[in-house]
Amino acid sequence: MSSAKVLYYHTSPISYHRFGQGAEVLVAFHGYDQTSAEYLYFEDVLSNHFTVIAIDFFWHGQSEWQEKRDFTEYDMKMIVVSIQREEHIEASRFSVCSFSIGARMARALVRSFPHRINYLILLSPPTFTFNTFLNFTTNNPIGLWAFKYFVKNNESLLAWVKRLNKLKVLNRSVYIFTSKFIGKKARMEKVYKTWYAQRKLSTNFTSFADVLNKHNIKTILIAGKNDSITPPAGMIKYIEQLKNGQVFLLNTKHELANAEIKAVFENLFHK
After folding, report:
1. Is residue 113 located within the same domain as residue 231?
2. How far is Cα 17 from Cα 95, in angstroms, rounded to an integer?
């Protein structure tokens, strides 16, 4: 396995993996509690078509946001530009791929370069409800206060999560994701730092669909039928309404490195 490279954006280290020798560039983002190394699983089916730049988001791998301000869409854009220069990559167009919560970075990058995007590949992206919940907990003063409180008092979080799910304030996917981190303060702190770093990357999905349609961006959704964390029903309807959308529904759960996704990549790009 190749080791990660590190680039400094201002004072913040950004780690990433590069592999492949294809003519087209693919910028990839992993999910929560993963690293860019997850994408090495697909090296054999992506390398001929793509040169892949898989980036570690903050508090994963060696990446950390050290600036005394919020991370923004412009920063996402400039990090990719900086890696492109560091790697001596010249590409007028490129593609973007993400797994799970990495979709927030992927959408930000597409918004920055809509005229240059060939493919947007979304692997098990968060539900619309989950996006709303994340925005509330990191941007709304009440939600942010509650988030900070439960990070410090995570032993009381489980009771509240169960209660809110029972009252149908939290849907099942948010409940399942949140429940995974109960009783582990270090993991709760990592969730908080990760979500907070993404808080300025929110998406207006109606406007985003207009961007995808206007620039005829090929948008591919690959999702699992048995995914309880990011159930795909709502996102399937969203993608199917796009002018250039395609859906692959697999017999999988919420996981990135699996053989069924690899088979889809092989079918699409290994020719």
Report:
1. yes
2. 16
Question: Do 96 and 137 fall into the same domain?
Answer: no
Predicted TM-score (pTM) of the model is 0.88
**What counts of helices (H) and strands (E) characterise the chain?**
11, 8
57 shares its domain with 178 = no
Amino acid of residue 135:
N
Tokens of 182: 């109960």
Asked if 133 and 262 sit in the same domain, the reply is no
Query: Which runs of consecutive H residues, i.e. helices, occur in the chain?
Result: 43-46, 73-86, 103-112, 128-139, 141-152, 157-166, 172-179, 185-197, 205-214, 233-240, 259-269
Same domain? For 149 and 256 the reply is: no
Q: 73-86 and 103-112 helices cross at what angle (nearest 10)?
A: 80
Kindly report, residue by residue over 176-200, the tens digit of the pLDDT. Answer: 666 665 555 557 777 778 888 888 9
